[in-house]
């Protein structure tokens, strides 16, 4: 990882939050079709000429570090579908000011490239794992359970500094998987985060038939066995962590809908695969950074600064939010 001593002062948004984390979607293509991420029939990925080149991604990341951004995560879609993902990772990892570089993946294509990504400077990997039952996994993702297990094994062998499992909570679909996934994570020395559904693909996900709140998930553990760890911060996101006393392991819970003050520590911007800067996942406002960059009307730094200035205080998920672009197009 590059020397971080040359970073500038971290920029702040209108509400005093330090914004130093950029999540970069490098593709909206995916080899899975997760229920909560990609709507049936989605074809947005077909507009490939609109997508950012590796050189453009690295130019934006370089501008971000000069503003004071220190943390980056490569997302998708499935970022490992992009053949130049290792080169992109190496380029960002080598930037002066980069202190942390992560990757979010479904894990199914991780096994062949895990070691190369680690060598390129990727420090942390988040792997989606919504079920341990292969039938349920297939129902949720349309993918192969054995492939993600191979990816997890490869990530462990590669020696990433941090490996996290992400499990999205879906009532009537994967409640039975919560405790097995928690045990699997504990047995393998991994962190798992349980994540509430957000209305990013369909607006009916918040109906009682679909939405499983964190409180319901946490109630599946024996009373008193989850001890809050308010000072434990193994990453840059909003998860709140607990120690599972039965195993001594730690796990996180992410609740955009039910956790009080969820947005109070938000420190990120998102850059979509087609070059739009999104100040907030739960609001529609975007800035077309790529169009400005290509026509010369604004620099990447100017667009990033404007996105920080536009960052709202809170999301609108609990205010009859109507999804526009699906999660796969925004970036995980």
Q: What does this entry look like structurally?
A:
The protein is an alpha/beta fold and 332 residues long. The chain has one domain: Aldolase class I (TIM Barrel, Alpha-Beta Barrel). Helix content is 27%, strand content 17%. The chain contains ten helices and twelve strands. It has helices at 54-67, 85-93, 114-120, 134-141, 145-158, 178-187, 214-218, 289-295, 300-309, 327-330; strands at 21-25, 71-75, 100-105, 124-128, 162-168, 191-195, 226-228, 240-244, 249-254, 268-271, 276-278, 287-288. Strands 7-8-9-6-5-4-3-2-1-10-11-12 form a twelve-stranded mixed beta sheet. Helix 1 (54-67) runs parallel beside helix 2, helix 1 (54-67) packs across helix 9 (300-309) and helix 2 packs parallel to helix 3. The longest helix is centred in the first third of the chain and has 14 residues, at 54-67. It starts with 20 loop residues before the first strand and ends with a helix. The relative contact order is 0.16.
